[in-house]
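Box 3.1. Reading complex inputs
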Amino acid sequence: MNLLVVKSSVFAGGGQSSMLAEKFVQNWRDQYPDAEVAERDLSAHPVPHLDASRIGALFSAPDGRTVEQQAVLDYADELLAEVTSADAIVLAVPMYNFGVPSQLKAWLDHLARAGVSFKYTETGPVGLLQDKPVYILAARGGVYHAAGQDYQAPFLRQFFGLLGITSLEFVYAEGLNMGEDAKQQALAEAEQQIASLIVA
Ligand SMILES: Cc1cc2nc3c(=O)[nH]c(=O)nc-3n(C[C@H](O)[C@H](O)[C@H](O)COP(=O)(O)O)c2cc1C
Protein backbone atom coordinates (compact mmCIF):
# COMPACT_ATOMS: atom_id res chain seq x y z
CA MET A 1 0.00 0.00 0.00
CA ASN A 2 2.33 2.70 -1.25
CA LEU A 3 1.34 6.21 -0.36
CA LEU A 4 1.92 9.52 -2.13
CA VAL A 5 1.79 12.49 0.24
CA VAL A 6 1.20 15.88 -1.35
CA LYS A 7 1.64 18.94 0.83
CA SER A 8 0.84 22.49 -0.21
CA SER A 9 0.96 24.66 2.90
CA VAL A 10 3.13 27.74 2.51
CA PHE A 11 4.17 27.15 6.15
CA ALA A 12 5.95 23.91 5.22
CA GLY A 13 6.05 21.47 8.13
CA GLY A 14 4.45 24.07 10.44
CA GLY A 15 1.22 24.15 8.44
CA GLN A 16 -1.78 22.55 10.12
CA SER A 17 -2.52 20.51 7.01
CA SER A 18 1.13 19.36 6.86
CA MET A 19 0.98 18.28 10.50
CA LEU A 20 -2.23 16.34 9.86
CA ALA A 21 -0.50 14.69 6.90
CA GLU A 22 2.33 13.62 9.23
CA LYS A 23 -0.24 12.07 11.58
CA PHE A 24 -1.76 10.33 8.59
CA VAL A 25 1.64 8.93 7.57
CA GLN A 26 2.32 7.68 11.13
CA ASN A 27 -1.01 5.84 11.12
CA TRP A 28 -0.35 4.50 7.63
CA ARG A 29 3.08 3.16 8.58
CA ASP A 30 1.57 1.48 11.64
CA GLN A 31 -1.03 -0.20 9.48
CA TYR A 32 1.24 -0.97 6.51
CA PRO A 33 4.82 -1.29 7.83
CA ASP A 34 6.22 -2.20 4.40
CA ALA A 35 4.59 0.71 2.60
CA GLU A 36 6.73 3.10 0.63
CA VAL A 37 5.82 6.72 1.32
CA ALA A 38 6.72 9.29 -1.32
CA GLU A 39 6.31 12.97 -0.56
CA ARG A 40 5.84 15.94 -2.85
CA ASP A 41 6.01 19.26 -1.07
CA LEU A 42 4.58 21.83 -3.48
CA SER A 43 5.75 24.82 -1.46
CA ALA A 44 9.34 23.62 -1.11
CA HIS A 45 9.42 22.57 -4.77
CA PRO A 46 6.74 24.57 -6.60
CA VAL A 47 5.28 23.26 -9.82
CA PRO A 48 5.43 26.10 -12.37
CA HIS A 49 2.11 27.66 -13.29
CA LEU A 50 0.80 26.80 -16.72
CA ASP A 51 1.54 29.32 -19.43
CA ALA A 52 1.26 29.23 -23.21
CA SER A 53 4.69 27.69 -23.73
CA ARG A 54 4.09 24.91 -21.17
CA ILE A 55 0.69 24.14 -22.65
CA GLY A 56 2.29 24.13 -26.12
CA ALA A 57 4.89 21.65 -24.86
CA LEU A 58 2.25 19.35 -23.36
CA PHE A 59 0.41 19.24 -26.69
CA SER A 60 3.48 19.13 -28.92
CA ALA A 61 3.85 16.38 -31.53
CA PRO A 62 6.83 14.05 -30.91
CA ASP A 63 8.57 14.81 -34.21
CA GLY A 64 8.78 18.61 -34.01
CA ARG A 65 9.36 18.75 -30.24
CA THR A 66 12.16 20.98 -28.92
CA VAL A 67 14.50 20.00 -26.08
CA GLU A 68 12.71 22.50 -23.82
CA GLN A 69 9.30 21.08 -24.70
CA GLN A 70 10.54 17.56 -24.03
CA ALA A 71 11.76 18.67 -20.59
CA VAL A 72 8.30 20.06 -19.73
CA LEU A 73 6.72 16.83 -20.89
CA ASP A 74 9.14 14.67 -18.91
CA TYR A 75 8.40 16.72 -15.82
CA ALA A 76 4.61 16.36 -16.29
CA ASP A 77 5.08 12.62 -16.88
CA GLU A 78 7.03 12.37 -13.63
CA LEU A 79 4.24 14.09 -11.68
CA LEU A 80 1.67 11.79 -13.25
CA ALA A 81 3.78 8.68 -12.62
CA GLU A 82 3.84 9.49 -8.91
CA VAL A 83 0.05 9.51 -8.94
CA THR A 84 -0.37 6.35 -11.02
CA SER A 85 2.19 4.32 -9.06
CA ALA A 86 0.66 5.14 -5.65
CA ASP A 87 -1.92 2.82 -4.13
CA ALA A 88 -3.36 5.75 -2.20
CA ILE A 89 -2.81 9.49 -2.06
CA VAL A 90 -3.06 11.91 0.82
CA LEU A 91 -3.51 15.57 -0.05
CA ALA A 92 -2.87 18.15 2.64
CA VAL A 93 -5.10 21.01 1.52
CA PRO A 94 -5.11 24.39 3.27
CA MET A 95 -7.83 26.85 2.36
CA TYR A 96 -6.36 30.13 1.08
CA ASN A 97 -8.83 32.78 0.01
CA PHE A 98 -11.70 30.31 -0.32
CA GLY A 99 -9.83 28.02 -2.68
CA VAL A 100 -6.96 25.56 -2.89
CA PRO A 101 -3.41 26.97 -2.71
CA SER A 102 -2.15 28.08 -6.11
CA GLN A 103 0.76 25.66 -5.59
CA LEU A 104 -1.71 22.78 -5.48
CA LYS A 105 -3.65 24.11 -8.46
CA ALA A 106 -0.43 24.22 -10.52
CA TRP A 107 0.19 20.54 -9.68
CA LEU A 108 -3.37 19.60 -10.64
CA ASP A 109 -3.01 21.55 -13.88
CA HIS A 110 -0.08 19.33 -14.87
CA LEU A 111 -2.04 16.13 -14.19
CA ALA A 112 -5.05 16.91 -16.40
CA ARG A 113 -3.84 15.90 -19.87
CA ALA A 114 -6.23 15.04 -22.68
CA GLY A 115 -5.27 11.73 -24.25
CA VAL A 116 -3.07 10.81 -21.28
CA SER A 117 -5.01 11.07 -18.01
CA PHE A 118 -8.47 11.56 -19.57
CA LYS A 119 -10.00 11.46 -23.03
CA TYR A 120 -12.85 13.25 -24.73
CA THR A 121 -15.74 11.13 -25.98
CA GLU A 122 -19.12 11.88 -27.59
CA THR A 123 -20.70 11.62 -24.18
CA GLY A 124 -18.14 13.80 -22.41
CA PRO A 125 -14.71 13.32 -20.87
CA VAL A 126 -13.70 9.93 -19.49
CA GLY A 127 -10.92 9.39 -16.96
CA LEU A 128 -8.01 7.14 -17.90
CA LEU A 129 -6.50 6.61 -14.45
CA GLN A 130 -7.31 3.74 -12.14
CA ASP A 131 -9.48 4.70 -9.20
CA LYS A 132 -7.70 4.77 -5.83
CA PRO A 133 -8.34 6.29 -2.41
CA VAL A 134 -7.50 9.98 -2.16
CA TYR A 135 -7.60 11.31 1.39
CA ILE A 136 -8.08 15.07 1.54
CA LEU A 137 -6.98 16.71 4.78
CA ALA A 138 -8.72 20.08 4.61
CA ALA A 139 -7.44 22.75 7.03
CA ARG A 140 -9.41 25.96 7.31
CA GLY A 141 -9.40 29.00 9.55
CA GLY A 142 -13.20 29.28 9.35
CA VAL A 143 -16.13 26.91 9.05
CA TYR A 144 -17.45 25.99 5.59
CA HIS A 145 -18.20 22.29 5.36
CA ALA A 146 -20.20 22.34 8.57
CA ALA A 147 -22.03 25.43 7.26
CA GLY A 148 -22.83 23.90 3.85
CA GLN A 149 -20.54 26.38 2.03
CA ASP A 150 -17.63 24.20 1.02
CA TYR A 151 -16.47 25.03 -2.51
CA GLN A 152 -13.12 23.26 -2.28
CA ALA A 153 -14.62 19.77 -1.97
CA PRO A 154 -16.82 19.93 -5.13
CA PHE A 155 -13.87 21.27 -7.11
CA LEU A 156 -11.59 18.47 -5.96
CA ARG A 157 -14.29 15.83 -6.58
CA GLN A 158 -14.86 17.17 -10.09
CA PHE A 159 -11.16 17.39 -10.84
CA PHE A 160 -10.25 13.87 -9.74
CA GLY A 161 -13.45 12.56 -11.33
CA LEU A 162 -12.16 13.88 -14.66
CA LEU A 163 -9.15 11.60 -14.27
CA GLY A 164 -11.29 8.62 -13.22
CA ILE A 165 -10.56 8.86 -9.50
CA THR A 166 -13.76 8.98 -7.50
CA SER A 167 -12.81 7.44 -4.13
CA LEU A 168 -12.23 10.67 -2.25
CA GLU A 169 -12.42 10.84 1.55
CA PHE A 170 -12.48 14.22 3.27
CA VAL A 171 -11.17 14.96 6.73
CA TYR A 172 -12.01 18.48 7.85
CA ALA A 173 -10.14 20.55 10.39
CA GLU A 174 -12.25 23.70 10.44
CA GLY A 175 -12.38 26.74 12.68
CA LEU A 176 -8.61 26.72 13.21
CA ASN A 177 -8.54 30.52 13.53
CA MET A 178 -11.57 30.72 15.81
CA GLY A 179 -9.85 30.48 19.17
CA GLU A 180 -7.54 27.98 20.81
CA ASP A 181 -10.30 25.72 22.13
CA ALA A 182 -12.01 25.43 18.76
CA LYS A 183 -8.66 24.77 17.10
CA GLN A 184 -7.62 22.02 19.51
CA GLN A 185 -11.01 20.37 19.26
CA ALA A 186 -11.00 20.47 15.45
CA LEU A 187 -7.49 19.02 15.27
CA ALA A 188 -8.30 16.27 17.77
CA GLU A 189 -11.42 15.32 15.81
CA ALA A 190 -9.50 15.31 12.53
CA GLU A 191 -6.79 13.09 14.01
CA GLN A 192 -9.41 10.70 15.32
CA GLN A 193 -11.04 10.55 11.91
CA ILE A 194 -7.69 9.87 10.26
CA ALA A 195 -7.04 6.98 12.65
CA SER A 196 -10.46 5.46 12.01
CA LEU A 197 -10.15 5.86 8.23
CA ILE A 198 -6.89 3.96 8.07
CA VAL A 199 -8.00 1.16 10.36
CA ALA A 200 -11.14 0.75 8.25
C1 LIG B 1 -3.20 33.74 2.71
C2 LIG B 1 -4.20 33.03 3.56
C3 LIG B 1 -5.53 33.00 3.16
C4 LIG B 1 -6.49 32.33 3.94
N1 LIG B 1 -7.77 32.29 3.52
C5 LIG B 1 -8.69 31.61 4.25
C6 LIG B 1 -10.04 31.50 3.81
O1 LIG B 1 -10.43 31.96 2.76
N2 LIG B 1 -10.89 30.84 4.61
C7 LIG B 1 -10.52 30.25 5.78
O2 LIG B 1 -11.33 29.65 6.46
N3 LIG B 1 -9.25 30.33 6.22
C8 LIG B 1 -8.33 31.00 5.49
N4 LIG B 1 -7.03 31.06 5.92
C9 LIG B 1 -6.65 30.34 7.14
C10 LIG B 1 -6.08 28.96 6.77
O3 LIG B 1 -7.04 28.19 6.09
C11 LIG B 1 -5.64 28.22 8.02
O4 LIG B 1 -4.62 28.99 8.64
C12 LIG B 1 -5.16 26.82 7.74
O5 LIG B 1 -4.54 26.32 8.90
C13 LIG B 1 -4.18 26.83 6.59
O6 LIG B 1 -3.59 25.57 6.44
P1 LIG B 1 -2.01 25.40 6.70
O7 LIG B 1 -1.82 25.77 8.16
O8 LIG B 1 -1.75 23.97 6.43
O9 LIG B 1 -1.28 26.33 5.80
C14 LIG B 1 -6.09 31.72 5.15
C15 LIG B 1 -4.74 31.75 5.54
C16 LIG B 1 -3.80 32.40 4.75
C17 LIG B 1 -2.37 32.40 5.19
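In summary: The chain has one domain: 3-199.
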